[in-house]
Design a protein that fits this description.
The strands form three sheets. This protein has a five-stranded antiparallel β-sheet with strand order 4-3-2-1-5, with no helix packed on it. The protein has a three-stranded antiparallel β-sheet with strand order 7-10-9. A two-stranded parallel sheet has the order 6-8. The chain is about 25% helix and about 40% strand. By secondary structure, it is an alpha+beta fold. The longest helix is centred in the middle third of the chain and has 18 residues. It folds into two domains: about 80 residues, no CATH class; about 80 residues, Arc Repressor Mutant, subunit A.
């Protein structure tokens, strides 16, 4: 499986204490979950001592199921699946003032606002594309890519920025990406850089 793939799983990896150490074990969640693979890491048996020793590395997938929750899953417990279909929502039509065009070079006024759920899904898919390509990016890069890919949607950077940072927290915690502060003219931004394995 690759980064950005969608998988279904019911069994997750947890930690089982063994005397002075611990080892990875599995836990059945009781229902099937679906998520996007955002990273691959190793889990280890921890043998007591000072310092503790790591043994028996086993690869696990880091699977994000929402903006704020990710699980560790053994690859053999994950089944490839298709991405979820966006829920249909009532989109309200946004009209521009009659004396101003909606957008330069576009005489069609069929623009739509995007709801939070749809925007979150679009952002997760776009971030998955950038992560799969191993590219560095900022929240503004994601905003611009979303606007290019969805020219009929109204996508405001002020709504995209916090969602990008929220999604990328799990990628930073899992060691897949790191963040740094960058200056662009007089503005400060957070830039995400892939960590070379």
């Amino acid at each position: 499986m690759q980064l950005g793939d969608w998988v279904e799983f019911e069994i997750i990896v947890s930690k089982q204490s063994k005397g002075p150490g611990s080892s990875p074990s599995t836990q059945n969640m009781g229902r099937v979950r679906r998520g996007m693979v955002i990273g691959v890491r190793n889990v280890y048996d921890v043998v007591g001592g000072n310092p503790p020793q790591l043994a028996n590395p086993q690869p696990v997938l880091i699977v994000a199921v929402s903006l704020h929750r990710a699980y560790r899953v053994f690859p053999h417990d994950a089944t490839p699946t298709s991405p979820p279909t966006p829920r249909r929502s009532r989109q309200r039509r946004v009209a521009s003032p009659s004396n101003q065009p909606v957008a330069l070079g576009n005489d069609d006024d069929d623009w739509h606002a995007v709801d939070d759920q749809q925007l979150s899904l679009l952002i997760a898919e776009q971030i998955g594309t950038w992560i799969t390509a191993g590219q560095m990016f900022t929240a503004y890069d994601i905003t611009m890519a979303l606007r290019t890919a969805n020219p009929r949607l109204i996508i405001k950077h002020d709504r995209v920025r916090p969602l990008v940072h929220s999604v990328m927290n799990s990628a930073v915690v899992s060691g897949l990406y790191e963040r740094e502060s960058a200056s662009f003219n007089a503005n400060q931004a957070t830039r995400y850089l892939p960590i070379e394995a």
